C-alpha cells in the first residue's frame, strides 16, 4: 500500500547522466560521426553480401547477421544520446523507453550469440574442410540464425516482463539511455532482487558464450598444429578476423566486470564514456575488420574502386 500511495504515473522519463559533462556539443559531434560511420560500414557489408551471389555462403551469412546486430546495437541508444547532447531533447516517452531497453539488451545478447555461432562455423570449417559445405548449408545457417534470435528474445523478454508491473517513484533515469538498471532504479521497490536476477542471466550468457568460443579455438589450434604449413596459413587467415572481433568485444565487457568487482569507483562521465564506447566500439571495428581481412570482400571493394576510376 505504501508503494501505491507514494508511486507516480510515469508517461515519460527524464534522461540524466549528462549534468557534469564538459563540452557536450563536441562529444555529440564525435558520437554522431562515429555512429554514422559504423552504421554505413555495416550497411555496406550487408549490401555487398546480399548483392553478390558468390558471397552467399554460411560464413558470409553469419557476417551479415553480425552486421545487422551491430546496426541494432548502435541504433538502440546512440540517437537518444545524440539528441540529448546536440538538440537538448532530454525526455523519452514511457513505451519508447521500454522498447529501447529491450532492443539495447537484445543487441548485447545477440552479439555474444552471433560471435559464438561464428566460432562454431570456423571450427567446422577447420575440422571438416571437405564435409563443411554439406554439414553447414545456407538453409541450416539461416535456421541457426533464426533460432539464436528466438532464444535471445526469450532471455531479454524477462526485462520488460519484470518492469511493467512495478510502480514508479521517480521519472529520472540515472544513466544516459534506457537500460534495465536505469529503469529499475526509478521504481518503488528494492532493486537488489531484480539486479541479482539479471546478473545471473547475463553472467550465464556471457561466460557460456565465452567458454564456448575459447573451446572452439582450442580445438582449432589442435587441428592447426596437426596440419601442414600451407594449411596452417589458410586456417589462421580464416580465423584471425573472428578472433580480433571477439577480443574487441569481450575485452570491453571484462573490463567493466573487473572494474566493478574490484570496487573501482568511476565518475559519472567516466562510466558514461565506457558505456558509449562499449556500444559504438565493436560496431565500428567489426565491418572494417571483415572488409580488410576477408579476401572476397577486399576483392569486391577493389572491383568497385576500379569501376569508379575507369568511369572517370
Automatic annotation (TrEMBL):
Occurrences of domain G-protein coupled receptors family 1 profile (ranges): 41-290
Q: Which GO terms describe its cellular component?
A: membrane
What protein does this entry describe?
A: G-protein coupled receptors family 1 profile domain-containing protein
One Pfam family matching this protein: 7tm_4
Q: Which molecular-function annotations from GO does this UniProt entry contain?
A: G protein-coupled receptor activity; odorant binding; olfactory receptor activity
The family database entries (SMART domains) matched by this protein are listed as: 7TM_GPCR_Srsx
Q: Which compartment or compartments is the protein found in?
A: Membrane
User: Where do transmembrane segments lie in this chain?
Assistant: 25-48, 60-86, 98-120, 141-163, 200-226, 238-259, 271-292
Primary location group: membrane
Q: What membrane topology does the UniProt entry give?
A: Multi-pass membrane protein
Keyword match Signal: no
Keyword annotations from UniProtKB, A to Z: Membrane, Transducer, Transmembrane, Transmembrane helix
Q: Look up keyword Repressor and say if it applies.
A: no
Q: Which PANTHER family match?
A: G_PROTEIN_RECEP_F1_2 DOMAIN-CONTAINING PROTEIN, OLFACTORY RECEPTOR 10K2
Amino acid at each position: 500500500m505504501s508503494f501505491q500511495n507514494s508511486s507516480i504515473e510515469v508517461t515519460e522519463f527524464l534522461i540524466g547522466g549528462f549534468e557534469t559533462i564538459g563540452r557536450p556539443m563536441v562529444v555529440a559531434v564525435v558520437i554522431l560521426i562515429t555512429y554514422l560511420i559504423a552504421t554505413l560500414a555495416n550497411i555496406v557489408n550487408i549490401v555487398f553480401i546480399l548483392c553478390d551471389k558468390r558471397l552467399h555462403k554460411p560464413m558470409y551469412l553469419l557476417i551479415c547477421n553480425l552486421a545487422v546486430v551491430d546496426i541494432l546495437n548502435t541504433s538502440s541508444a546512440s540517437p537518444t544520446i545524440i539528441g540529448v547532447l546536440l538538440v537538448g531533447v532530454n525526455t523519452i516517452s514511457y513505451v519508447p523507453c521500454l522498447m529501447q531497453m529491450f532492443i539495447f539488451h537484445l543487441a548485447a545478447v545477440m552479439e555474444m550469440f552471433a560471435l559464438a555461432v561464428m566460432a562454431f562455423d570456423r571450427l567446422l570449417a577447420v575440422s571438416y574442410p571437405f564435409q563443411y559445405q554439406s554439414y553447414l548449408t545456407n538453409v541450416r545457417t539461416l535456421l541457426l540464425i533464426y533460432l539464436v534470435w528466438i532464444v535471445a528474445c526469450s532471455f531479454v523478454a524477462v526485462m520488460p516482463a519484470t518492469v511493467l508491473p512495478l510502480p514508479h517513484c521517480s521519472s529520472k533515469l540515472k544513466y544516459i539511455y534506457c537500460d534495465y538498471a536505469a529503469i529499475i532504479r526509478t521504481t518503488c521497490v528494492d532493486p537488489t532482487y531484480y539486479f541479482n536476477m539479471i546478473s545471473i542471466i547475463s553472467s550465464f550468457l556471457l561466460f557460456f558464450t565465452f567458454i564456448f568460443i575459447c573451446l572452439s579455438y582450442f580445438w582449432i589450434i589442435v587441428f592447426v598444429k596437426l596440419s601442414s604449413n600451407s594449411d596452417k596459413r589458410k586456417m589462421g587467415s580464416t580465423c584471425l578476423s573472428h578472433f580480433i572481433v571477439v577480443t574487441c568485444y569481450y575485452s570491453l565487457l571484462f573490463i567493466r566486470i573487473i572494474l566493478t568487482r574490484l570496487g573501482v569507483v568511476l565518475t559519472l562521465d567516466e562510466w558514461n564514456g565506457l558505456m558509449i564506447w562499449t556500444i559504438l566500439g565493436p560496431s565500428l571495428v567489426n565491418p572494417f575488420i571483415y572488409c580488410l581481412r576477408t579476401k572476397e570482400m577486399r576483392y569486391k571493394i577493389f572491383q568497385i574502386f576500379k569501376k569508379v576510376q575507369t568511369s572517370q
